[in-house]
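Hello everyone,

My group is preparing for a crystallization screen and wants a predicted model to guide construct design. The compound we'll soak is adenosine-5'-triphosphate. Before spending weeks at the bench, it would help to have a computed complex in hand. I've included the protein sequence and the ligand's SMILES below. Output in structure-token form would be ideal because that's what our pipeline reads.
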Amino acid sequence: MVQAVPVEGRRQAPVLCRSLAVTSGKGGVGKTNLTANLGVLLAGSGRRVIALDADLGLANMDVLLNIRPLYTLQHVIQGEKAIQDILLTGPAGLRVVPGASGILSLANLEEAQREALLREMHSLELMSDLLLLDTGAGIADNVLSFVLIADEVVLVTTPDPTAMTDAYAMMKVISQRRPEMPLRLAVNMSAPQEGMAVFQRLGQVAKQYLGVSVDYLGAIPNDPAVSSSIRARRPFVEAAPDSPASRSLREVARRLGFAPPAPAGRPTLISRMRDILMKK
Ligand SMILES: Nc1ncnc2c1ncn2[C@@H]1O[C@H](COP(=O)(O)OP(=O)(O)OP(=O)(O)O)[C@@H](O)[C@H]1O
Ligand SMILES: [Mg+2]
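Reply:
Good plan to model first. Here are the tokens for the complex, ready for your pipeline.
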């Protein structure tokens, strides 16, 4: 007789997905733009990438990517939809989980809603190689709930002193709650030298006062290609692949450990194997 294995006794499928939370101390520094474009860039190189719009205040990734969600994370939390039902496909095959605007607090969710969210988040991990969480700004609980669950944090700032001060506050909270969390810094709307100076300053205070080290991902310039592609509702990595912003974002991807895609026409393992087998 076959015995049913209790759920808790079953071996869980290994999760190979890498999750990155993109966050900032101050609002409006470019998180959503960078997340959406990084997602498109990496989805275009054959990875299964899901971008989750985790800004519960003002979800707007759908607007940037010109997709029109019928259902959002709100329906998932309310148990009305499974995550598969709300996933949309954007440019380059990037999959997007539309965000739920106006949820006041994850902490106030009812038990059943919390369980639905947890279950559905797990299924996201199983169906992707990379999960990008675009969060809101600041150290409120709703933002931190998503930041603290990721494998790594990409902290976005600009050279603006107020943005840097708020970035430090964010690093402080993260280092208190998860001291081992890898922290990586991207400096948006900045020239390369200025970005490096911002990193050196924040990296130094993080080391000195928080005892954590920060990796540098690079600077992304203030680029008119970004604003014009927003108006055209197209990702700038597709609309302007040779723009300074696109080039810098490819460098950010490389520093995150994502090798650039093989150029078209480059020999592949299969094509080389075919050559060798055919020669016999
Ligand atoms: N590299 C850039 N060059 C030019 N403009 C940029 C750049 N990055 C962002 N912007 C501008 O900054 C604005 C804010 O960007 P975005 O919405 O991505 O920020 P955010 O950090 O997600 O904001 P929020 O905190 O409200 O979620 C955009 O409308 C865009 O016009
Ligand atoms: Mg945003």
